[in-house]
Design goal:
40% of the residues lie in helices and 21% in strands. It has 109 residues and is α+β, with helices and mostly antiparallel strands. It has one domain (5-94): GMP Synthetase, Chain A, domain 3, CATH 3.30.300. α2 links the parallel β2 (44-51) and β3. It starts with a helix and ends in a 14-residue tail after the last helix.
Length: 109
């Protein structure tokens, strides 16, 4: 089944809106979430984590457990999410951009 231009536009708008909802969480740790490409016909979406994410130990969990799960749960037409990490940044510089994952601090009572 071929999509109309309106259906293509609607799918792309919904994807961009969802990406905009997720980005602040990633940006809070000094990273970013970028849409690389999207095929609204086949449902294949490619995203990339950038900035501090390239040195973060849980970036693959963020891609699989967060981004992929959210996109496939909320957009029924998404069939596959290809995730990558921008490795062009120096790991030391990357680690200085954010605090990484939330780790609760021990507090004496």
């Amino acid at each position: 089944m071929e999509l109309t231009d309106q259906e293509r536009s609607s799918r792309l708008s919904a994807l961009n809106a969802l990406m905009d909802l997720m980005r602040p969480s990633v940006q809070a740790d000094g990273g970013d979430l970028v849409l690389i490409r999207c095929d609204v016909e086949t449902g294949v979406v490619e995203v990339q984590l950038q900035g501090a994410c390239s040195s973060c130990a849980i970036s693959s969990d963020t891609l699989q457990g967060g981004v992929t799960r959210i996109l496939t749960d909320r957009l029924d037409w998404v069939t596959e999410v290809i995730g990558g990490i921008d490795e062009s940044m120096d790991p030391e510089a990357s680690s200085l951009l954010g605090s990484g994952a939330y780790v609760p601090r021990y507090r004496e009572l």
